[in-house]
Structures are given as C-alpha cells and as structure tokens.
Amino acid sequence: MRLQRTREYDPEDRRYKDVYSFTNRRPFAPINTFSHEIIEEVFDFAYGMSFGREGHHRNHRTGGNNRRRNGEIFADTFQGKLAEFALWEVFNDNGLLVPMPDLEMYDEGVWDSSDFEYMGRKIAVKSTKSFGQLLLLEAEDWNEEGLYIPNLNTDNELYHYFVLVRLEPYAADILRGNRLYFNDTCDRNTLKELILAQEFTYDIPGYMTRNNLVQLIERNYFIPQGAYLNRMGRNNRMDADNYYMQAGNLHHIDGLIERLRALE
C-alpha cells in the first residue's frame, strides 16, 4: 500500500512541498525491556564510534546532504545497535541461536556483511521510533536487483530479509532534549548517566524479503529527498531518497522465524 502524497504550502519558503502520509499503520506493541547490561554495552560502542572517535561511522547518509555531528552519529549508532540486540533476543527466545551483535569498532573502509546470518540467510535490521510506520532503505544503496551496492562483488551484496525494530524512547530525542544532538563533543559520564536513566523497550512490527524490495523498486515506492513525512517540519524532512514499506504491510516476525527454522 502506497503512502498518500499531498502538496502543502510552506509559508516560510513560499512554495508548495510534497508531504507523504501513512495509510497502513501498525500500533506499537512492546515485547520486552532491555537489560541494564545491554544498554551499557551499546552505549560504550556508540560513544566510541562517535564522540570517542575509536571507530569510523559515515557522517552522512547515502545521497544525503546533511553532514552529521557526533551527537547525531551517536544517536544513530546507539539506536541501530540496540535494534540488533532486540532481534537477537527474539531469535534466541525462539530457539534460533545466533551470535551476539558485533561490537567491534571498525576503521574506515571495513563493512559488515550483514547484521545477522542464519543458515546462509543474511538479515538486515532497521530501526525507528515507537510511532514510526516505515521501513526505509536509502535508494542509492540498492540496485534494481535488490543488491546492496556498497558490497557489490564481495559476495556480501545479497540480503535475504529486512527486519524493522521500533524503540522507546529514541536516543535522538534524548539528546535533542538535552541540547546534545548537534554537538561534536560531550562528556562521557554526563551522557552515560542520561542514557542509563532510561528504560528502553522495543517491538518488531515485521519484516520484508529481498523480493519485496525488488517489487518496491519496480513499483516506485519512493520518497524523494526534500519531501516531508506526515507533516512539514525540520525533523520530518527527508535527507535522502528512500524506498519504503509501511509497517502495516510488513510480514509478521513469526513468519521469518518459521522460514529460518525450516532451513535447519
């Protein structure tokens, strides 16, 4: 199901802008709360990959204009890795024993082959806020065959499944609320205290397959750079072109668990 596209007048710009609205929502239904130990491990990783400068993380999205500050990189890294731990917990709770998410801080030029691999099937994890309704994939990262362009010719370009994880609260909102989101420096202990004071919960609204991605590309399920999501506003503006699938159209996570069990 497509998003609804409307044209709305922006009085500041004195121009009409494209606004894309949800048409098939799935409500947030928390599965579990992360342990203190997981939050602390993910914090250490995200801080090292951003403010700590111990590893390399891109300061922009593929095709995007925004050059991210360390606060933005911390939030994205924290949220992304926490989402991996969410799926890891769900897999292990259902008897699919996969290794713990990788917390190695890689240098520039070193790419993960996937977030998870089970019986030869590669799985990518995408994260969003608890009220988020889209699984987004940056358009310039994917070719018409649904292959991941940065990994072409490495035997790691094919992802079989894409899983959406939603988090509450969202690290970006915590940093924004404490005026740290657009900072390049931050005291480690101050930020750690802010993060560890939270209780982070998650749900998994569903997954899609590589074939679904190819269909999205063929049918132009696409939000262009500069368009707005749901309403006009700085935090709702798309920084890069993205393919999308709405949460209400995703396959239930139980289906992925059954598919993976059938491979054993």
- Global Rg: 18 Å
Strand content bin: 15-25%
Profile the largest sheet.
5 strands, mixed
Number of strands: 11
Residue runs with pLDDT of under 50 for 5 or more positions: none
**In terms of structural class, how would the helical and strand content be classed?**
alpha+beta
Q: Overall 3D geometry?
A: globular
Rounded to the nearest angstrom, the distance between the terminal CA atoms is 33 Å
Q: Quaternary state, please?
A: single chain
Number of helices: 6
Helical residues, percent = 25-40%
Compute the average pLDDT. 92
- Arrangement of strands in the largest sheet: 3-8-7-5-4
Element-level helix/strand string: EEEHHEEEEHHEHEEEH
Number of domains: 1
What would your notes on this structure say?
- A hairpin with a 4-residue loop joins strand 1 and strand 2.
- The radius of gyration is 18 Å and the shape is globular.
- It has one domain.
- The mean pLDDT is 92.
- The protein is an alpha+beta fold and 264 residues long.
- 34% of the residues are buried.
- The protein is built from 6 helices and 11 strands.
- It has a 5-stranded mixed β-sheet. It has a 3-stranded mixed β-sheet with strand order 1-2-10, with no helix packed on it.
Short description:
With 264 residues, this protein is of the alpha+beta class. It has helices spanning 36-48, 70-93, 171-177, 188-196, 210-218, 253-261, and strands at 4-10, 15-21, 32-33, 116-118, 121-129, 134-138, 161-168, 201-209, 222-223, 228-229, 242-246.
